[in-house]
Prior knowledge:
Elements: H1 3-23, E1 28-34, E2 42-47, H2 60-68, E3 74-80, E4 85-94, E5 100-109, H3 111-125, H4 144-159, H5 168-180, H6 189-197, H7 201-214
Antiparallel strand pairs: 1-2, 1-5, 3-4, 4-5
Amino acid sequence: MGDLQREAVLGALAALMGPLNRTLTDPSEIILHDLSKLPNSIVAVAGHLTDARIGGPADAVVTDAAASGDFTERIGYRTVDESAELRSTTVFIPDASGTMIAALTINYDVSLWASVRAIAEAMLFGRQSRTDAHPDTAPVAPDIDRLADKLLAQAIRTHGVPVELMQKRHKLAIVRDLQAGGFFALRESVETAARALGVTRFTIYNYLNEIGAERPES
């Protein structure tokens, strides 16, 4: 494949990344590699989750595949960033002759859902986890406060406006998202949301009342 054809394929893939990343639930990112530029093969990034950047190096999955010649797709493998647990998928894209020219990696932060699972298991199975091989050992209690902070940070980040610049419509939309996600079932959730959004807890209650009034009567 000539350089012009390669650039056309890479350009088409890059054009798909933004819409695809917006379709995924935050936080996530998509990374495109030009395998002819290894090891610094990143040519496009959509989303912000790791420190991936254009001109940056490929990860071990991409470099190992290039070194071994095994370009089997990797689906849902676990990776660990400095502050998050990720699930990742990498697929390799060939040209018309079958030569691999690109790799596309999707990273998705599942640490929040791991916390949700821990809370659910603690509620369903009590002190003994379903997978606990030692019934006399009590599992560590899930950090519900940390879960609440993560849910709040994710909701605020999704709206893309600094809290200090938010108007009522922004804060109401965030509370609506939190309500839909079950945030207000957590302990002290109203107070936590009020602190994060710079309002009083009575304002949060008013927002919740407005949201309740929006629901059509059955």
